[in-house]
Design goal:
Structural class: alpha+beta
Radius of gyration: 43 Å
Distance between the termini: 96 Å
Largest sheet: 4 strands, antiparallel
Pfam families: WD40 (PF00400)
InterPro entries: WD40/YVTN_repeat-like_dom_sf (IPR015943), WD40_PAC1 (IPR020472), WD40_repeat_CS (IPR019775), WD40_repeat_dom_sf (IPR036322), WD40_rpt (IPR001680)
Keywords: Membrane, Repeat, Transmembrane, Transmembrane helix, WD repeat
Protein name: WD40 repeat domain-containing protein
Strand content: 25-35%
Strand order of the largest sheet: 1-28-27-26
Oligomer: single chain
Organism: Laspinema olomoucense D3b
């Protein structure tokens, strides 16, 4: 606006100056009669300038007035919106006796008392469910934040060059298992004329074809022919409200223990499917459980970074073990029942005296979070499956590292060791691998599932094993040959855990929807 005003003033001054100069020039040249011409022009110019200024000011005033009207209208609309809900509030219902005049809403003390009563009822509404959901969301956010933080820290520690070197090691190890048949020698020119055929003698055995198999399988004393298996569902239990991430059975085959992300552990009668006990001491989800060989102690590992020991079959809590800096993902108990081993997302393995509930030692190679643990049946080898796709082996008695097995680039989520010193690993890429622990040799690798392999269970006879996957299937395999014997579909979604009964006639699966199925072999 100030620019317009300066321009108009400058135009006025310029017109006046031009009129004065024109009048002086006219008088100086004795043309006084011509003085009227510049004066008239000046008057016309000034009149036009004045009209423009007036129109400009009028527009400014109109614009300001319109803005004020709009602002007042918006404020009135806001006030109306505030007042209307109060008008629409229902008046308190007052019982009126027959024949009496109904009361009038005048703001009397009785009406105020009724309104206060109604407000009190509104304030007393049970908000525990909503608060529980909010607390659950906060917990999930905290867990997600922890997982992301650990993953970022791991990626920062593992440089690209190191990870590429690991890939090359895995490829070279797999390539070393390939047997390339040597080509048959070409006949020399001087031997082009063949000699007459002669009968075969012991000194000249007939030529044999090169082996067709690329991988040498382990030898068994009396390999059994694989036969198809049939399983039927005996019980389907709606056991938990979240993932059933771990299962365990007492050595006498009487009690089934289930651990879930809903923070609880439940004990069931394996024969009838009856719920016996609910153990609810953990603050966050339960990742793993393990039962001692004597069947008197249950250990549970949780997202709350603790390990709890329970007495069986009573379910009485005994001890709480602390020391891990992250969620405890895996548990294993030595065959002699004296040592408990725990693996955590903090990349450490801790060994505990089970009877004294004391820490014995801590092992780590700082290669990533620990997803699975297994101890060989003879108690000599401790195996750890990591988030970096490697399996690290330790000598259990001396706590000295033995070797590192590279078979996958995804997390090794489940491992078991057979009495024949064969290790079976299930990976996040849906594959399973069989290793000979005596030689460190990869015997075979199969693309078993369409989703991550979340559970592996070895049958008591040692001839077959079962794998469970996030693709919703349970598959049973022949251990010596790797042949598929049976495929079972989990109706309630992803399979998160598996365990065989001690006699091998029952196979129990836990799903991501909280269901537990007890399968019996026909």
């Amino acid at each position: 606006m100030s620019n317009h005003r300066h321009w108009l003033e400058t135009a006025e001054y310029a017109s006046l100056f031009a009129s004065v100069v024109a009048s002086i020039v006219a008088v100086f040249f004795n043309g006084a009669i011509y003085v009227a011409a510049p004066l008239i022009c000046s008057a016309l110019i000034l009149n036009a300038i004045a009209r423009y200024r007036l129109e400009h000011q009028t527009r400014r005033v109109s614009g300001t007035t319109n803005r004020q009207h709009r602002q007042l209208a918006e404020e009135l609309e806001m006030l109306t919106q505030r007042v209307e809900p109060q008008k629409q509030l229902p008046l308190p219902q007052v019982e009126v006796e027959e024949g009496s005049r109904p009361p009038v809403a005048t703001g009397s003390p009785d009406e105020l008392a009724l309104l206060k009563t109604r407000l009190g009822k509104l304030e007393s509404v049970d908000l525990s469910q909503i608060q529980g959901e909010i607390a659950g969301l906060k917990e999930q956010y905290a867990l997600l934040d922890e997982s992301l933080g650990n993953a970022i820290a791991y990626l920062n520690r593992s440089s690209f060059a190191y990870r590429l070197e690991r890939v090359e090691e895995a490829i070279s190890q797999l390539t070393s298992q390939i047997v390339v048949p040597s080509p048959s020698p070409r006949p020399q020119p001087e031997l082009a004329t063949p000699e007459p055929p002669t009968s075969a003698t012991p000194s000249q055995p007939a030529k044999s074809k090169p082996p067709a198999s690329k991988v040498v399988l382990p030898s068994f004393a009396a390999p059994s022919e694989p036969t198809a298996q049939n399983w039927i569902c005996r019980h389907s239990l709606p056991a938990h409200a979240d993932w059933v991430r771990s299962l365990g059975i007492t050595p006498d085959g009487q009690i089934l223990a289930t651990g879930s992300f809903d923070t609880s552990i439940k004990l069931w009668n394996l024969t009838t499917g009856e719920l016996l006990q609910v153990l609810a001491e953990h603050k966050r989800g339960v990742f793993a459980i393990a039962i001692a060989p004597d069947g008197k102690t249950l250990a549970s590992a949780s997202w709350d970074k603790t390990i709890k020991l329970w007495e069986l079959p009573t379910g009485i809590p005994k001890e709480t073990l602390t020391g891990h800096g992250g969620s405890v993902r895996a548990l294993a108990i030595a065959p002699d029942g004296k040592t408990l081993v725990s693996g955590s997302f903090d990349e450490t393995i801790k060994l505990w005296d089970l009877s004294k509930a004391e820490l014995i030692d801590t092992l780590t190679d700082y290669t990533g979070p620990i997803f699975s643990l297994a101890i060989s049946p003879d108690g000599q080898i401790l195996a750890r499956g990591g988030g970096d796709g490697t399996i690290t082996l330790w000598q259990f008695q001396t706590k000295q590292p033995i070797s590192v097995l590279n078979g996958s680039l995804e997390a090794v989520e489940a491992i078991v060791i057979s009495p024949q010193q064969l290790l079976i690993g299930g990976s996040g890429d849906g594959s399973i691998q069989l290793w000979n622990l005596e030689t460190g040799e990869l015997l075979w690798s199969l693309s078993a599932h369409l989703g991550p392999v979340t559970a592996v269970a070895l049958a008591p006879d040692g001839n077959s094993f079962a794998t469970g996957s996030a693709d919703g299937t349970v598959k049973i395999w022949h251990l010596p040959t790797g042949k598929l014997l049976c495929t079972l579909t989990e109706e309630s979604g992803a399979v998160m855990s598996l365990v065989y009964s001690p006699n091998g006639q029952l196979l129990i699966s836990g799903s991501a929807k909280g269901m537990v199925r007890i399968l019996e072999r026909e």
